[in-house]
Each structure stands twice: as structure tokens, then as C-alpha cells.
Amino acid sequence: MDLEHDPNLSLTIGHDTEQEWLALRSRRSIVMQLPAFDLCRGDRLSVGGDTLPNVAMVLLATDSDSLFDDVDAALADSDTDVWRVKAGADVAEVARLKSPDLILLDSQIGNMGGIATCIALKQHQESGRHEPAPVALLLDRAVDVFLADASRADGWLIKPLDSLRLQKLARVLRSGETMYESPVMS
Predict the structure, then answer these.
(1) Residue 154, SS3?
(2) Burial of residue 3, with CB atoms counted within 10 A of its CB: 0-12 exposed, 13-18 middle, 19 or more buried
(3) C-beta separation of 115 from 147 below 8 A
(4) Could you tell me the pLDDT band of residue 183, with boundaries at 50, 70 and 90?
(5) How far apart are CA 75 and CA 149, in angstroms?
(6) How many CB atoms lie within 10 A of CB 40?
(7) 185 part of a folded domain
(8) Domain range spanning residue 167?
(9) Is residue 186 part of a domain?
(10) 166 is a domain residue
(11) Distance separating alpha carbons of residues 40 and 139, to the nearest angstrom
(12) Which burial class, exposed, middle or buried, applies to 185 when counting CB atoms under 10 A from its CB (0-12, 13-18, 19+)?
């Protein structure tokens, strides 16, 4: 499916006039409606739903608006776009279509959790269904590390998250290395 020329691609912003549209261009969380899934982009919008040239794409899978806002605030800048899908089952198809530079998975995603999504992504990457990209999990609890280890993720962080740790994770994983946060036991 070619997103640039797909007649099913439409932009949903809730406003009809071009003037209202232009006023909202910098608004966060504008939703791109694609036939099978919702794809949300952070702070900038591009024509046809495509990332601008030479801009890194981070794909975040979460149904949490607050997590999306936190990740977008930490990682989006002039060189990086943060995109969002709200269903784990959609991640592999979006990764195939968009070839993100980094994939972040919330451990709790509506219909398919982050660990199951990570396992599926790794299988897709190994079979050549889409380009390899580093995959990191955003874990809810320290005890989730045991399950995360089985997922073959390239890295993970344990919530609560902060901007510095998210930025470090993105930098390390995009450089081809791994980063696994150890649980702090009290």
C-alpha cells in the first residue's frame, strides 16, 4: 500500500476550513486514519502522512494519551518525529509500511500487549517482512523484566519514565547498542 497515493488516507482533525486547519498545524496528536488502523503523529504534520526526509521516525504503541504525550515531549524535535498506534496488533503492519528508526512498546496495549507485540515484530524482522528496527519495551513494573527478557527486545525502561532516560534509550538503541534497565529492589 502506497500511503502517498492511497485514496483511503484521510486526515481527521474535526475542522472543515483550510484556515482552521492551518491554525492547528502545530497541534499535537493529529490522527491519520488509515484503512486498518489509526496512526497518530506528534508535533508536526506532513503531507500524505509521511515523515519528512532525513527525519528519524519513532513509532510508539500505546493506548495511553499521557504516555504518548510524555514520549513525544521527550523525543520529538526537528530531527525526530514520534508516531503512535493504539493497538499492538497494528504495529507490524505500520512498521512494514513506514520503516521506523525505533519502535517503543507500552507493556499494556489494548488488544495485544507489548511483550507479545515485540515477539511478533522480531519474527517479522527475522523473516524479512520488514526492515529491522530496534524495539524497546516500556514496562509497568520491575517484575515484568522476567517476561521482557523472553521477548528479545533490544532494550527496556521501567516506569515511571522521565525525559532523560527516554532520550538515552533512543540514542543508545538507534546507535545499534542495547539498553536494559535493571529493577531496583527495596
Answers:
(1) coil
(2) middle
(3) yes
(4) confident
(5) 25
(6) 19
(7) no
(8) 3-180
(9) no
(10) yes
(11) 21
(12) exposed
pLDDT band at 53 (very low <50, low <70, confident <90, very high): low
Total number of domains in the chain: 1
Per DSSP, 34 falls in state -
pLDDT at 16 over 50: no
Amino acid at site 177: E
**DSSP E strand stretches across the chain:** 10-12, 30-33, 38-41, 56-61, 80-85, 102-106, 135-139, 155-158, 179-180
pTM for the predicted model, two decimal places: 0.75
Residue 134's CB is within 10 A of a number of other CB atoms, namely 22
20 domain-assigned: yes
What are the residues facing 77 on neighbouring strands? 80
Reading the block at residue 88, the C-alpha cell is 499492538
CATH of the domain at 31: 3.40.50.2300
